From TrEMBL:
Lipid bilayer topology: Multi-pass membrane protein
Domain of life: Bacteria
Cellular compartment(s): Membrane
Keywords: Membrane, Transmembrane, Transmembrane helix
Location, primary (coarse class): membrane
Transmembrane segment boundaries: 6-28, 64-81, 93-116, 128-148, 191-213, 225-246
A cellular-component GO term for this protein: plasma membrane
InterPro entries: UPF0014_fam
Listed PANTHER family: PROTEIN ALUMINUM SENSITIVE 3, UPF0014 INNER MEMBRANE PROTEIN YBBM-RELATED
Family of the protein in this entry: Belongs to the UPF0014 family.
Protein name: Iron export permease protein FetB
Length: 265
């Protein structure tokens, strides 16, 4: 089946729906009209630029350029994790925890899937590596950001409870154990909901894109199952690591709660 080409004027017609929504937002005085329009403009600009970059990258196919592209995606995702928290750790910790957690989880799972499961030749083929890493980073980023935000908000809100438990002789892990578990649950909830609803409530994005491009539905389903499982693994491991390191950073060597290590966004 041939793929139907889309022209820029057809995309502009779709953009009128966003403009109409922005008008409704302004009329309802929701206060997010500018954010909506800016986000729509960024979507169009960023995806257009990425399209040109990927075309050049696919043509070259060198591992160095694939690695540089992945590193750039990782650093931008780390910045987004930090920016989405109302309270974040001071200094380099605020950026490093999310970035390193995504590197350990998303990159490891991506390499594992490329080498062991999918097996393209070469294994770093940008046609497979970049889209897979992008989907993993995007979802892992959301999970880690939600988890860290829930953790810092919870520790600030339950400060007296945590300090009271410390005074009773509990370790820092015991004092904030429920807060840590709640943060991890928050990070995992989006992917759990997505897997539970996949195929019943919604058709996931990758599967929809493959079907629209002419891929057989059965093959698209297999790829989507693979992606969902890898996203769940990457998000879960990244969330566990980020919450563990961040919660330890909130206590000093004497196991005293150190909220002064947080700063408001």
């Amino acid at each position: 089946m041939d793929v139907i080409e889309l022209s820029w004027w057809q995309l502009a017609m779709a953009a009128t729906l966003v403009l109409a929504l922005a008008g409704c937002v302004y009329w309802a005085r929701l206060g997010v009209g500018n954010s909506l329009l800016i986000a729509a403009a960024r979507t169009a600009l960023q995806l257009t630029l990425v399209g040109f970059v990927l075309e050049a990258l696919f043509a070259v196919g060198k591992p160095l350029w694939v690695a540089l592209m992945g590193l750039g995606m990782l650093l931008l995702a780390g910045r987004e994790v930090m920016a989405r928290q109302n309270y974040r750790l001071r200094g380099a910790w605020g950026f490093a925890i999310g970035t390193v957690s995504m590197f350990v989880s998303a990159f490891s799972v991506t390499v594992l899937m490329l080498i062991v499961v999918i097996g393209p030749t070469p294994w770093y083929s940008p046609q497979y590596a970049i889209p897979l890493l992008g989907m993993l980073l995007g979802n892992t980023m959301t999970g880690i950001a939600l988890a860290l935000d829930r953790l810092t908000e919870g520790v600030r809100r339950e400060r007296q409870l945590v300090e009271g438990r410390l005074m009773l002789g509990q370790t820092w892990r015991e004092a904030c154990g429920e807060l840590r578990r709640d943060a991890m649950r928050s990070g995992l909830m989006p992917i759990i909901n997505a897997m539970a609803a996949a195929g019943i409530v919604s058709l996931p994005g990758m599967m929809t894109g493959q079907i629209l491009s002419g891929t057989a539905p059965a093959l698209a389903v297999k790829y989507q199952i693979l992606i969902m499982f890898t996203i769940a693994a990457g998000t879960g491991f990244g969330t566990f690591l980020a919450v563990s390191v961040a919660s330890r950073r909130l206590f000093d060597s004497n196991e005293r709660l150190r909220l002064d290590r947080l700063k408001s966004a």
